[in-house]
Amino acid sequence: MKRLFSALLAFSLAVTATVPLQEETPSAPFSVDAKSYLLMEASTEQILAGKSIHERRAMASTTKIMTALLTLEQPKLDESFSVDAKAVQVEGSSMGLLPGDTVSLRTLAAGMLLSSGNDAANAAAVRIDGSVESFVERMNRRAKQLGLSNTRFETPSGLDGENHYSTAYDLAILAKNALKNEDFAAICSQTKQKVCFGDPPYERTLSNHNKLLSSYEGCIGVKTGFTKKAGRCLVSAAERDGITLICVTLAASDDWNVHKNLLDWGFSQLQRLDLSPYLAGLTVPIAGETQPMPVKTLSIPQTVIPAGKEKEVVLQLFMSPFYYRPLFARQKIGEARFYLDGKLLCSADLFPAEDLPLPTENTGIMSRWRRLFGG
């Protein structure tokens, strides 16, 4: 197992950023019928395959990934309110809202992610920010915060607009962040969901347009989309053996099979790696003592790498040459960083294995301490 140990003063460290996007995007080993596509491993953002991943294109109702995420970040998700009559009068796909209906933001999010309701998107926008236009400003602010440099929103629903666009890469990053929201992840992974709304409200069932949820093992979402301008758009995510892949196709004629083929191939290329063996037996010197101190992490560091490359993982340690008592088990004393092919995979904070208090009169350590430091 190959290791590289670098001892540096902890307080002089500069933060190392994750290596940015590959300049040349690798292609899948088979034909992919899509104007743009991307296959990404979620935890490391490693791009496994793609084409025209930064090309701006219409993205139809995959827009609702952002709209639903912002909706589910609001307080009082289950509070009932009457929908804005004008907001629900919108063309395209619908969850069935009518003027005067009573609904909650959580139900509207379900209406967006399952039924792809344009009415749900507009109703949520008006409820949250008072107007569709103000909510669109919120969407673009969040896009900027997430680093989606080739994304611009004009509508909450995804209806085509002259300056309404995104890219395969930006949509993958958006999906990754949306899936961190527990409510979002729970809703977009459902093939069907019971909701209650109406005037008066009554229970009904919404069906998810995402066929992969019932036809592909491990699929956990995310969102379909279609307009005449955008073509068939699909953002999917799947989990197997602790690995999460995100797949995006824009303007694909057979997106269901394209995603299945890309996901199958992607899972065959990767393995999840437990990094704790790389840190086994790690110790640091304690000033004035002959026995070094064992070091631990608070959780088991893990990452995803190309299959068969575990021996090429390189470890760098960022720590002081030695430490003084007292030290405490929850006190960070350094950092381990793991690299592959010069790229940062992940990092782990390092801590003393146990508390090390100041020496006392009853320990041999105290006498050595006095000899070293003059009492």
Q: Which sequence of strands runs across the widest sheet? A: 2-1-9-8-7
Order of helices and strands: EEHEEHHHHHEEHEEEHEEEEEEEH
The CATH superfamily of the largest domain bears the name: DD-peptidase/beta-lactamase superfamily
Question: Looking at CATH, which topology of the largest domain would you report?
Answer: Beta-lactamase
Short description:
The chain is an alpha+beta fold and 375 residues long. Helix content is 24%, strand content 27%. It has two domains: 10-19 and 274-373, D-Ala-D-Ala carboxypeptidase, C-terminal domain (Peptidoglycan synthesis regulatory factor (PBP3), Domain 2, Sandwich); 34-268, 3-Layer(aba) Sandwich (Beta-lactamase), CATH 3.40.710.
Which helices and strands appear, and what pairs or packs with what?
Blueprint: E1 34-41, E2 46-51, H1 64-72, E3 81-82, E4 102-103, H2 105-113, H3 118-129, H4 132-145, H5 168-178, H6 182-188, E5 192-198, E6 201-207, H7 212-215, E7 219-227, E8 231-240, E9 243-252, H8 255-268, E10 270-274, E11 283-284, E12 293-296, E13 302-306, E14 314-319, E15 334-340, E16 343-352, H9 364-373
Antiparallel strand pairs: 1-2, 1-9, 3-4, 5-6, 7-8, 8-9, 10-13, 11-12, 12-16, 14-15, 15-16
Report on this structure.
This protein is α+β, with helices and mostly antiparallel strands. It folds into two domains: 10-19 and 274-373, D-Ala-D-Ala carboxypeptidase, C-terminal domain (Peptidoglycan synthesis regulatory factor (PBP3), Domain 2); 34-268, 3-Layer(aba) Sandwich (Beta-lactamase), CATH 3.40.710.10. Helix content is 24%, strand content 27%. The protein has nine helices and 16 strands. The chain has helices spanning 64-72, 105-113, 118-129, 132-145, 168-178, 182-188, 212-215, 255-268, 364-373, and strands spanning 34-41, 46-51, 81-82, 102-103, 192-198, 201-207, 219-227, 231-240, 243-252, 270-274, 283-284, 293-296, 302-306, 314-319, 334-340, 343-352. Helix 1 packs across helix 3 and helix 3 crosses helix 4. The longest helix has 14 residues, at 132-145.
